[in-house]
Design a protein that fits this description.
Blueprint lengths: L1 E2 L4 E2 L16 E5 L10 E2 L2 E8 L12 E6 L6 E7 L6 E8 L5 E4 L3 E5 L6 E5 L4 E4 L12 E4 L9 E4 L2 E3 L2 E3 L14 E6 L6 E7 L3 E4 L12 E5 L4 E6 L6 E4 L6
Antiparallel strand pairs: 1-2, 3-10, 4-9, 5-8, 6-7, 6-9, 7-8, 10-11, 11-12, 13-21, 14-20, 15-16, 16-19, 17-18, 17-20, 18-19, 21-22
């Protein structure tokens, strides 16, 4: 890995993944960190501008973006001011107040890799300098020309707008005329207003209503500004002249 701050290359720890990084190995860098193999991080304690984790963080996170997507502090989207190093690291933020139910995402970077033959799959997290093996159940033997991709980086926002109403599992924008299910499997993120910070997978949509796959913690309303994005929970593996495309879901660790 090239460290721009130090203008030097460093060798990463051994991955421990099955297979090799030979022909057929493929990967993708994601802006979100993946401590413990997942983007969504829970805390053990919280306070004013403070998050206590159960992670062993080994580098400074100062200046990196942190956003709260669930629990106390929902809607906070700021930066890390400082952090302790070592076990049970404490993160100090640019604002907000948090609790033991807080779930956050940290933009510290992660590298997702599938080894040759798809017999190994895992993620390297920059904040912890550690690999986490992920499931390969359901994948076939893989050849020498695979590609691992995700849709979250293909566009920052495919669409945005302001809701006219919301309910337990829906968001309505009465001014729209969407094609039926054109947004299925994308994600919707509440940017500002009621329910800000929440991210949900879109299960289906009508011309004016998005139905999400899990209930909102805080129902959106007419103050909620939303964005429709590529789904950050999904990654795809394809190639080798295969006619089958494989999708991985990060939150459930399943193909």
């Amino acid at each position: 890995m090239y460290e721009g701050d130090e203008d030097s290359w460093i060798q990463l720890p051994a991955s421990g993944l099955g297979g090799t990084f030979g022909a057929g190995a493929c990967g993708e860098f994601r802006a979100l960190g993946a401590m413990g193999g997942t983007f969504n991080q829970t805390v053990t304690a919280g306070g004013v501008a403070s998050l206590t984790t159960n992670k062993t963080i080994v580098r400074s996170l100062a200046g990196m973006r942190l956003r709260v997507i669930q629990g106390t502090g929902l809607g906070f989207d700021g930066t890390v001011v400082s952090n302790t190093l070592g076990a049970n690291a404490v993160i100090t933020t640019s604002g907000g107040s948090f609790g033991a139910d807080t779930v956050f995402q940290l933009f510290s970077g992660s590298l997702w890799m599938a080894t040759a033959g798809a017999v190994g799959f895992g993620v390297y997290d920059r904040a912890t300098n550690a690999w986490t093996a992920r499931s390969v159940v359901g994948l076939p033997a893989w050849g020498t020309d695979g590609q691992l991709v995700s849709t979250i980086g293909s566009a920052k926002e495919f669409a945005t707008g302001q809701a006219t109403a919301g309910a337990a599992t829906t968001l309505t924008n009465g001014a729209k005329a969407w094609g039926t299910n054109m947004w299925a499997n994308y994600q919707v993120r509440i940017k500002t207003g009621t329910g800000a910070g929440q991210i949900r997978t879109i299960a289906s949509n009508t011309g004016t209503v998005l139905t999400v796959s899990a209930a909102w913690a805080v129902n959106p309303d007419a103050t909620s500004v939303y964005a429709i994005e590529g789904n950050g929970d999904f990654m795809y593996l394809l190639g080798n002249n295969a006619v089958t495309l494989y999708r991985y879901q990060i939150s459930t660790n399943t193909w």
